[in-house]
Amino acid sequence: MHLFGAVISQGINAGDVRKLQDAGIYTCNGLMMHTKKNLTGIKGLSEAKVDKICEPAEKLLNQGFMTGNDLLLKRKSVVRITTGSQALDELLGGGIETLCITEAFGEFRSGKTQLAHTLCVSTQLPIHMHGGNGKVAYIDTEGTLYLWELFVKLILKSLYLFLSSPNCFLNEVFSRPERIVPIAERFGMDANAVLDNIIYARAYTYEHQYNLLLGLAAKMAEEPMFLLYPSKIEGHVYAASAN
């Protein structure tokens, strides 16, 4: 991942680089993923400026053809992160791949959120333990990581316990740990350290979700070993489309 330092050293104005960063573009790789037409839509960037910025970035990245051996070498940098299930890891060829997008889909209560919570922990395992030795960004569109689902289950369980056995009600209600904690303990990791390496945000609209991703781009440019998990990423987009 190439930051804009090399581009600035080629005589590109730092102010123009800042305009790119304000638009959520923090690396030369990110720059090359936008058309010049889109880049000229950024306030303050003319077509001439965009050409001047893109030229050294293209030379730096050398995104032309490569040999099969070069491609194989690049593939060797891919890390596969364990899902916590040996059978599922084998089906996936060793686990969840980095440097790509993996989508988990299925019916309600089929284990998608549980898989995400497990990956929040396994991503932080060392490479030799089939982890990513990295950090996690979790964008939640449904409030499933810490709050809503846990709250609903707790209320229902509390009501059941209170009606069936009022004496054990208080002990049961206040002994339930956070959902990440038992997963961390299963992998032999310190729960507090694991939670410190997870940054969490609740997205309420598709615009909020988009802005969160823009802010996250800067962090991922500085610390590339991130697992980004947007929970139900399409939910707000569908809602906006329907309206």
UniProtKB/TrEMBL annotation:
InterPro entries: DNA_repair_Rad51/TF_NusA_a-hlx (IPR010995), P-loop_NTPase (IPR027417), Rad51_C (IPR013632), RecA_ATP-bd (IPR020588). The lineage of its organism: Eukaryota, Viridiplantae, Streptophyta, Embryophyta, Tracheophyta. It comes from the Eukaryota. Residues 77-243 form the RecA family profile domain. SUPFAM superfamilies: P-loop containing nucleoside triphosphate hydrolases (SSF52540), Rad51 N-terminal domain-like (SSF47794). PANTHER family: MEIOTIC RECOMBINATION PROTEIN DMC1_LIM15 HOMOLOG, RECA/RAD51/RADA DNA STRAND-PAIRING FAMILY MEMBER. Keywords: ATP-binding, DNA-binding, Nucleotide-binding. GO terms for molecular function: ATP binding; ATP-dependent DNA damage sensor activity; DNA binding. This is Meiotic recombination protein DMC1. It holds the Pfam family Rad51. The gene is LIM15_0. The keyword Nucleotide-binding applies. It comes from Zea mays (Maize). GO terms for biological process: DNA repair.
